[in-house]
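Dear support,

Our group has been running a series of protein-ligand predictions, and this particular one with AOF is the one our PI (initials K.S.) wants archived with full inputs and outputs. We had some confusion internally about which version of the output was final, so please treat the block below as the authoritative record. The input we submitted was:
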Amino acid sequence: MNFIFTSQDECFMRRALELALLGQYTARPNPIVGAVLVNSLGQIIGEGAHLKSGEPHAEIHALKQAGELARGATCYVTLEPCSHTGKTGPCVDALIQAGVSKIIFAMRDPNPLVKNNSGLEKLTQAGIKISWGLLEQEARDLNPGFISRMERSKPYVRAKIAASLDGKTALSNGQSQWITSPESRLDVQTLRAKSDVIISGSGTVRLDNPSLNVREITGLQPVRIICNTSGDLFKNLENLNLYTTQELNKILNKPNFLIAHSNIYYQNHEQGLYFPDLKNNLKNLLNFCDEKNLNNILIEAGSIFTSAFLNQDLIDELWIYMAPCFLGSGARDMLNLPEILNLDQANRWKIKSIQLIGPDVRVVLTRS
Ligand code: AOF
Ligand code: ZN
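Confirmed final output from the archive:
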């Protein structure tokens, strides 16, 4: 379907996209959504964002703010209004009841519960004009993990790397704190805060004893999963910062520090996730995340572990923070990839964005 939109439509949709961000650290596992109600004079009469799973959707907040003024208004919303009863009632019914006359949404909802056309048919039958596709890519970019799970049955996976300009991530003795600036590390905090899960390797845990939590931003804490095939970290749990900073994760109903392992002895450990042959089948860990409604995964690990994910073709985005320094030839490489003998086999990516972060540069790479 090809709909025609005005520059005023675009302005209001941009506002809806902006509002959606209000839920970016708190709404998961739900998608983030923004909505704006505009009257016939082109004035905004209601605004809303979906802030928390189980709480009202964006449209409901906007309708509440507009009250009686919603009659005859246009609703701009970043995601197709839902037609199902989940933790909350269908937004389609609320919009009909409030008497809005037009709805413009940026993207169809890929959720199988909403995907059938029943909501759109209901709106059309109620005499409401509907159109969609305005700033669709921008709306898709708000919810990569939710869309990936709905469309491909797998979470969206990002890997973060902090490196020098000569592509090194640690000295030969393992020292890596700190190559990048405090500004870059704060930027990583926002990336963590948007992630449902942080995955790391036991090597990083032994070397740095990291907490891998969110400290500078208010929002939900991610689940931290450490891959440790032998399970030997279980012997020393209490001394890990991951253990002392753990709290209950409501999506999983488990502590937010888990160890993925392949040691049958720890099969029933309450903080364990047992996968036979985890090392060669990291995909099984991602399948677990998909089944548990965990949308966005961030890998923060050393080069060997990050490369294992890369070699198994499991990474959607690379976030590389590069500090303007050189660590020399003895230092550890950013990645450990198999040697290739033909440039046709190069591991190629597309640059999605480049941004200065303090004194460093952040390059985001995608596959497509
Ligand atoms: C909307 N507006 O603001 C959001 C929508 O369990 P529930 O009731 O909260 O439903 C969650 C599903 O609703 C979610 O998976 C997605 O399909 C849709 N989200 N829909 O009309 C919103 N957040
Ligand atoms: Zn809804």
